[in-house]
């Protein structure tokens, strides 16, 4: 097993760790969990997380790539593109071009590139099946870049476990703490670390809710989450506007 000395993570809310909330109000997420495990194995392990919620892949390239390249980390992990894919006017050529720009830049400046094949939205999200042609194009780009750069690939798309609503937060868009824990284990396994548990093991289903309760939950979700999300899309705003990365420097992780 290789000894990993540092990690920089780039991306959006998925990598920032949104909805895996700590008592102080900050978010943790799978990348922090990966860093914690690697730090336990390597004294002085350093970690940076440049991801910011709501970012499109062009913004990730413009705002996060150069700082990450300057760090020259042993591992550079990138996941992104789903915010673009979910938008009606998505320009797939532009998106895949920016994904390529990020992967090429990280591979040239960091020790090992880690790429993530995004979670399949088709069975979990309403209308998710309509996104599949775009998602498959994104995956094909990631696969080609992984071959080009001999990257570590974390294949979440092929897993059915993330179909389980028990792994998702109230907003139905972001993983909850257990979802992030499973992604972290998948990343660590891809890096060659011995398993601590089976991240792909099916989740025991929650008891079925009566129809009335399901309808009420759907209405609450639409009011609290769907409406504001649509409002941001219409007005061109983002949940990440004005936010800075939670770990903007490559520093020892404790």
UniProtKB/TrEMBL annotation:
Region (Disordered): 231-254
Domain SGNH hydrolase-type esterase: residue ranges: 9-182
Transmembrane segments: none
InterPro entries listed in its UniProt record: GDSL_Rv0518-like, SGNH_hydro, SGNH_hydro_sf
Ranges annotated as biased composition (Basic and acidic residues): 243-254
Protein name: GDSL family lipase
Species of origin: Actinokineospora bangkokensis
């Amino acid at each position: 097993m290789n000894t990993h000395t540092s990690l920089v993570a780039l991306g959006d809310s998925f990598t920032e760790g949104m909805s895996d909330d700590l008592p102080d109000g900050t978010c943790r997420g799978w990348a922090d969990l990966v860093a914690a495990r690697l730090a336990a194995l390597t004294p002085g392990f350093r970690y940076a997380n440049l991801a910011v919620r709501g970012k499109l892949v062009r913004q990730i390239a413009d705002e996060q790539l150069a700082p990450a390249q300057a760090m020259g980390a042993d591992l550079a992990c990138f996941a992104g593109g789903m915010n673009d894919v979910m938008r009606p006017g998505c320009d797939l050529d532009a998106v895949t071009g920016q994904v390529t720009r990020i992967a090429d830049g990280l591979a040239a400046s960091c020790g090992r590139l880690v790429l993530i094949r995004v979670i399949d939205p088709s069975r979990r999200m309403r209308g998710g099946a309509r996104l599949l042609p775009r998602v498959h194009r994104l995956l094909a780009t990631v696969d080609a870049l992984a071959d080009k750069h001999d990257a570590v690939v974390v294949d979440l798309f092929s897993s059915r476990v993330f179909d389980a609503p028990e792994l998702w937060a109230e907003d139905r868009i972001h993983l909850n703490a257990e979802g992030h824990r499973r992604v972290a284990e998948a990343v660590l396994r891809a890096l060659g670390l011995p398993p601590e548990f089976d991240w792909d093991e099916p989740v025991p289903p929650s008891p079925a809710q009566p129809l009335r309760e399901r309808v009420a939950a759907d209405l609450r979700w639409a009011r609290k989450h769907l409406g504001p999300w649509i409002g941001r899309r219409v007005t061109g705003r983002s949940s990440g506007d004005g936010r800075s990365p939670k770990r903007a420097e490559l520093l020892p992780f404790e």
